Structures are given as C-alpha cells and as structure tokens.
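Anyone opening a protein record will find just a pair of labelled lines. With that in mind, the following record should read easily:
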Amino acid sequence: MRFRLVVAILVCLVAPTLEAQVPELLYLKLNEGSGSASANAAFPGLPGAAPILRNGATWETGNPRLGAAALKIGPSLFAADLATQAPFSLAGDFTIEIWFREDPGGSLGFKALFAEDSLGPFQLTKADEAFRLDGPVPQVALAWPARPGVWQHIALVQDTAEMSFSLLIDGVLRSKFPLTTPVVLSGSAADGLRLGNGGFIDSWVGALDEFRVWSHARSEAEIQATMNQELSSFAQDLAVVSVRNPVFDLTTRALPSNFEPVSATIENLGSTLVPSGTSFMLSYQVDNGPVVTETAVLAADLATGDRFTHVFGAVANLATPNHHDVVVSLSWTADQNPANDARKRAIGGGGVEHLIDRFPWTEGFENAFWNLNYWGVPQWRHEFGAGGLPGFFFAAKPMLGAPSSGHGIWAEDGPFWAECRLDGSLVSPLLDLRALVNPRLRFWLHADPVQVVNSPGLVLDVITRPGGAVSSAVWGPVGGVLGPDWIEQEVDLSAHVGQLVELRFRGAPPLPLANPISIDDLIVYDHLGDVGQPPRAGLAEFDLGQARNLSYARPSSLENGPYYSQLRQFAQMDLVFGGLPNAAVILLAGPLGTQAATYGPAIGQLDIGGPVNPTTGIPFGIVVIFNGLNTTGLDPFFRIPNSGRMLASFPVPALPPGIVGTFQALLVDPSTGAPALSNAIQLEIRP
C-alpha cells in the first residue's frame, strides 16, 4: 500500500478578500488553485515544496467548502492526487484538519491517507460506514458514516502532555484514546506529502478542501471556532500552546493542594526567528483571582516551531474543593496575533483531569477504542479478571446474545455499548459528589441470553477516594433473561453525598462468553424533582423522541415534567400517546410556560403558553396542532386504540436548528367527555 493522504484539503486563497485572524500559525498551508493543469499551491511550513496535480486531479470551482476552489478527485483507476514533492516531518503535538466530500455514486471506496510515497504506517480510512484509524496508534473504529454530497470536517489531534490521540467529526470529539509512544509522521520520498485517493480498488470520487496541519494540539473549541474560516499567518507570533501544570494526580486520586506549581509551554508560531535575550511578560490567574506576573527572557534563539517551558516561581492555591480554571497569558510588544496569547487548564472539571464535578454527567461509550483485542474508553479503566483479560468490551454489532444495537437516548448517540463477557471490572472516572444534594445513577441494561444456564451476573460497587473504601454490591447482582429490550435501571447514590467516588461495574461468575450482559447511556445527576405536569398513567401520557426531564427520567417513569427532546433535521418524529381506548387526542403547542395553569387533579396542569387569560382561564399563545374530535384531515386518526397506546410517525419538517416549541396533549374520555392533560415536551432540532 502506498502512503498517501486521501483526506480533505484546507485551501486558503493566495490573497483572500477577508482573512481571518486565527489563533495559531499553520504548520502547513495549501493555497487555492485557479483551475490550471498544475497545482497553484504553496506550503510555507514545508521548505522546498513544489506541489503538482497528477492522474486527473483538478481544481473544482463550482462547489468548494471555503474560498474559490477545492481539489477534485476521480473517477480514476490511478492515484489521482496532489504531491508536495518535498520531505516532511511532523512530531510532538500536532493537529490535522481536513474537509472532504464524497460524491454520490461512482466510488469504489473512500480512503484517507497522510503519508509519503512508500509503505506508510499511518492512515485514516472510510469503509463499512465507519471511519477507521490505523498505524502507530491504537486502531480505532468509529461508526460515523459519510453523507454523499455533503462536506464533512475531520480533525486528528495528538497531545503529548495528555498522551492521547483524538478524532473529531464536524468539530465534535468522537473518539479519544491513550498513547504509549507519540506518533511521528514523516516522509522522505521525493513525492513527500500526498493528498488524494488510493488508486485502483481504493479509488473514489469526491473533493478535498481546507487542509491544515498545526504544530500543536488544538482543543475542540479552537477547532470549532476556525473550521469554517479561511486563515492567515503572522511573522511575529509567540503563543501559549499548553498549560503543563498543575495536573490532577491520577495515581493517588489526591485533591489539588495549596502549593501547586504552574508551568506553561510557549511556541514561536511566527515565520521569523525570535533571538535570545528577548524578554516578554507571562502571568497566570486562578479562578479570576489575583494575577501573578513574571518576566521571561529567552536563553537561546527560538526558531519557527521551537518551544520552551516556563515554570513560575509563585505556586498556586488550589486547595478549595471543586472546579478550578488556571489561565496563563503572554504579553509581547512585537506580537502580531494576541488571539493565542492565553490558554486555560481546567482542574477537576472533566476532560484530561479525569475528575467529574459538573452534572449531569453522561457516558454513552461512543468514544471506545481498541488495540490488539484490548477495549477501552477514555477516562475509564479496566481491572482485569482471570487470564489477565478485561471483563468489558465495547460493541457496535451483535455478538451471540448481545443486543442488536446500542440504546441511544439522544439523537446524536452512536451505536456502542459496554458488554460484560468475563469476570473483570470497568471503573468510571472519579465523580465529585460533594455539591450534589440527592445523587442518582441511571443506566440502561440488556441481558437477553442465548442460554439461561450459567447466565452472567453484573454488580455495581462504589469506591470512595482517597482511601479506596468499597461499598460492595450497591446494585445487583443482575443476570439471566431480562427480556428482548433495553431496561432502565436507577441507583440511589445519596449515601455517598460529600464524597469522591468511582463506580465499578464487575462481572459476577459464572460468565460464559456466549451470554453477555450489557450497559449503555449512564447518567449521574442530582435528583431534585421537577414542577411540571407529570404523565398520568392510563389517562394522559405523551412521549416525543424519547424525551427526558431535568432528572433525565423518561415519561414512562411518571415523574414530573416538563420533558425535553432532541431530534435531528430530516429524521423520524415519533409521537406516542397513552390513555383510555378510543380517547380523542388534542395535541397543543406553545412556548414552555413561565407560569402554570392548574385545573385540578381531574384534569391536571398546563405547562405551555404565556400568561393566563383572565377571561378564559387558559394561557395565551396556545395552538391546536391536531384535534381527534374532528372528522376531517388527519384529526380522526388521533384516537387511542384498544391497546392503550398510539404511535404517530412523521418525518421531521425542514425546521431550522434550535428550540421549536413545547407540546402537550389533552385526552378526552370517550364515555364521560372528561379531559386530562399529559406532560409537556419541549422539542429542539439539531443539525
């Protein structure tokens, strides 16, 4: 296999009309072509680059992602590509960003490679409706299908301070896994860096646009901020690229102290050398408190891409419990790009620090990674069972008695779930329950085994940190035949208020491989109760897109609302109504009410509409969507069948992203004519 990049290309205009002042300098930059046979491209971070287009690769001006042109690939049985014809090397922290568009029809496959013109160790591929990352990093399979005809953005981030490698799709983190050795990308062949398809059976038809390589690890927020902008670079640009300390102690799980060291890495992102003896100011601030300022003086020349680390003489006090933000800032009179002169490190706020103190906290296992049969998920750890194997694996397809798909509670959820096959344990990140009043855990469970004999058992322990005291079997063991569907579970964690805890799911023998038990979509939250109208069992229940209330309970729990639902544009909209057989359904819509209108226990409470009309007693701003009492149009279909449940399905209309409004159902008893109000559900459309 030849090492080539089939990824999306970032193309910037040679002289753009509107240049974005971006936070960082590009390590490599590709400027747009003008439709000529030879590539009108430049790589200022790659000395000696002389890029050319080959084997049918052309510039496309009709449908670029940004600017005036994109790189058009295929159809071709050969390696249609752009070659830089210069050696390159990329080590340490880096970020690769790419836009690609797979055209409908004509593609034998999509393969994206970042490589030299030889057998290469690193590739990003698209096959079997999943992106796949292979090479000197742990292999990753991510079910995130390409959308023919639609531009999609991919970012790959290596962070050597965190020792992690991340894959982001359309600016959202989708997979993150640890590294044992940082990846080094290099090309020594004459063709150098190549952008295009794999040729022959790997050929594909599409376009590449906006290819960017940065010499540091960019955050999710930074990628989102500039992915839709064209970029420019600067001659004089020093940047704070990372806050190295303080860090959270993952070994002892000890809390930060009142004498934490602070250090930051500074990089020359400008195109000119910064000479030794240059001085500038560095400062840090904790939680918007007093600013600590020191003068830094370069002891050696700092060429483009060179870094140095400054350790502050004054330590930081982080002993106060809960979340801390440490911000390091730089001030240099010659700097042309102040946008990158500050960087924040969160201590105890999730992310790389592995301490969760912001709730509700969710885990859908969608960022699972695998490497040589070892399954893991960021921030979680395995405690190995017999034979030195993890007890949990992360599935995207059925295995013997496993479920056919993951349980997704939100529209953007993927298909992965955690599957217990052996007797090891899966341990959560550290959860800070000190600020919660009534902590609860909800998760979904599936155990529909091939055989009942020797069925697996699953147990949940709570481990208190520091110290490691174990509260054993706070839930479970559970096993055997639970039914064909996912079943929601709830665990009361109020006994651990004021503590830092880990949740440990462990398999209880016997655990035959043929009979796994699975968990998915965990939520830890503060169960404080809501004030809206609850579903009314047997009288008036309403669900839309698997809605949740603020306590993350489903309408089937009969807890108070209001409830909230998210649907994607052009997805399926499922409305479920429950009540007496033949009851007419009147579906109402309006804003989520600022004040409730209560009509007594027989009818219930209206949670939609504006202020109450003093004449009618009904809130203003309510619209009737369907009325099952009418006999025309779709209205007569809105009646509850003998089963007591009605399902109405429609495609989601072409609604703009955002909150559409809130819906609430009024059901009319067919024998008495008595009305009963259901719970209210606020609908949000996601792009």
